[in-house]
Amino acid sequence: MALGARAQGSRQRKAARQVLVEDTDPGIPLNQVPFFTKDLTRLGITVAVMIVLMLAGAQVLLHFWG
User: Fold this and answer.
1) How far apart are CA 64 and CA 62, in angstroms?
2) Which residues of 26-50 are buried (b: 16+ CB within 10 A; e: fewer)?
3) What single-letter DSSP state applies at residue 60?
4) What is the mean pLDDT of residues 13-28?
5) Is pLDDT at 7 greater than 80 in this prediction?
6) What is the torsion angle, in degrees rounded to the nearest 10, for the CA atoms of residue 32, residue 38, residue 42 and residue 47?
7) Which of 8, 11, 22, 66 could staple 62 via S-S, CB 3.0–4.6 A?
8) Are 42 and 48 in contact, with CB atoms under 8 Å apart?
9) Alpha helix locations (H) across 1-66?
10) How far apart are CA 48 and CA 50, in angstroms?
């Protein structure tokens, strides 16, 4: 009898742990994020500057050691 009660309790715990996922999109709406587009613009500018700096550094290194 103890084994049957233990197995039944185990099934109940597993059922309680299941999480229901809603059908709607779980993402955050971008119109509610205050600085999202401004941050993306800054990130793009930073990436462009870093690429330019890497290319300039490569040219300088090639000039001295090339």
Assistant:
1) 6
2) eeeeeeeeeeeeeeeeeeeeeeeee
3) H
4) 65
5) no
6) 60
7) 66
8) no
9) 2-17, 36-65
10) 5
Tokens at 12, concatenated: 């109940």
How much is the pTM?
0.53
Q: Which two tokens stand for residue 1?
A: 């009898």
Q: In whole angstroms, what is the distance from residue 28 CA to residue 56 CA?
A: 39
Per-residue pLDDT at 38: 93
What are the tokens at 46? 């930073």
Residue with tokens 């999109």: 25
List the structure tokens of 43.
């990130």
- Is residue 30 within 8 Å of 36, Cβ to Cβ? yes
